[in-house]
Amino acid sequence: MTPARVRRNVIVGALVTLLLVFTLFPAYWMMSSAFDANAASGSTGLFPSELTLDNFIYVLNDGGFAVFLRNSLIVAVAVVVCSAVLSLLASVAVARFRFKFRTSMLLMILIVQMVPMEALVIPLFVQVRDLQLLNTLLGLIIVYITISLPFGIWMLRGFVAAVPVELEEAAFLDGASWWRMFRSVMLPLVMPGLVATSVFSFITAWNEFIFAMTMLGGASDKYTVAIGLKQFFGENSNDWGSVMAASTLITLPVMIFFIIVQGKLSSGLVAGAVKG
Amino acid sequence: MTTTIQSPAAVGTSGSPAAGGPGPRRRKAITIAAARPWLLLAPALIVLAVLLLWPLVRVLIFSFQDYGLREIVSGDTNFIGVDNYVAALTDPQLWSVVLPNTVLFAIAAVLCTVALGTLVAILMTNLSRFWRTVVGSAIMVAWAMPAVTGTYVWVWIFDADNGIVNQLLMGAGLMDEPFNWFTNRWTFYLIVLINVVHHGFPFVAITVMAGLLGVSKEMLEAAQMDGAGPIRRFFQITFPSLKQVFTVVIILSTIWDFKVFGQVYLMPGGSGTNRSVLNLGVWSYVESFGQNQYGFGSAIAVLLTLVLLVITIIYIRVLMKEDEL
Prior knowledge:
- Chain A is an all-alpha fold.
- Chain A has 2 domains: 3-54, no CATH class; 62-273, Orthogonal Bundle (MetI-like fold), CATH 1.10.3720.10.
- Chain A is 75% helix and 0% strand.
- Helices cover 74% and strands 0% of the residues of chain B.
């Protein structure tokens, strides 16, 4: 290797190391504290002095975290399924058909996507209360479907538009009905996009905090993980072992999910969010 | 990357598959074809209208009312005109605390997120396949960390009593006693900044990297032959061809960083007890659900929405220029 090449490799190596430390340290620190027997008392080093599962056992049993995990799973699955169906249908409409008000529809979808949660949380709280759905998972599911829908439509329309029209025509020439074509031609081809949008609606439902805090405030047995976590914080704020064990339980499924769909997620983002 | 443009002929074919049939049947087919997009849109539109548009109208209506605990329970209206807006806009807190916190933070966060994301994207395109996957997975871990847990982890890292940062700084002899990072407005937002950048730069990195891979290799090589150095090549070839990607990434980050909520609310003092760290979003929430001043909180929320609307309009104009919708 030439000296210039060695120097380049050293610089790149140093940058990669720095980057890996910055990106991975919080996740490492979270898990390290979660398994550390001494994190509760606050004495911690860079490595756990004594490994234990006690923090996890405590949050799952005494902390009621198993219930929160179940609640979050119900909410997330319902939101993923419903918003996938709704946004796929709508994205086919805006990507494949030219109709009156199509552009205004797209603009509306783009604009509502930018609305801050704080602006919606007050009227939606009143609305969900009027529907008598406060402190229920159903109320939260409906709200999450709504907030993940604009992004889903926006992202999926890129995938739908990318399906070659010739394939559709071929299906029609073979005598297929529109629905038949949709099921056997369109659906398989937009699957990667559907995976990417489903990841996003799953994450929305799993991580969302403001609405859960506002709408489930009165029923701790209905808490989702995002607000259930708050229980271990605050009054006994020194119990970092429990907070980090609960955080690990929340974060791990999402991380595994992200790493598995990494490739599809990137192409989905580029096709949907960036290029429109 | 051309995903939206179709030839008019192709659209006509996919829109009216039954074209060419006999007279009455054909007319019926055309009617069905015209109704089809609306049938497909109907479920989503109903949900959006009832749970997004109507609430948006409602928050506007609330903002002109003295909407407190009594009104939220009884459903009565009590219109007071623009008093809430006058109160919000003449509140010295808005100008000395809330706006600087919101705006300065957004500027700093967008700059740092985009700069770091771009650097990582450039770094990744220079890595071997193996190391690119390693770095890609690592930034996925940062991205996947939920805002709620991410915030708690950063709070724990900077914890005043036993946080690792205080321990390291004291161990290195840089500090004599533990420092409480959360009581000071600047160090509070420094932690929010690290948290938001850590969570937000992977999106920028992945998007910019996708753009970088699309930059013409021939042009870069030609420029190198002509003696252009790497920095010049970046600013004269790479950057201009990524303009669109950068515009979108910057505008999206601006919108996200303007409305950061959980990362502030969940930190010690962030839920309203330390008023020097309020931002627009938290202020609106705290006034509404903490003080039961839903009308006043709505007015603040409307102001925040208006700011974001302006940014969104810029975003749409940029997109429209590039591509038909």
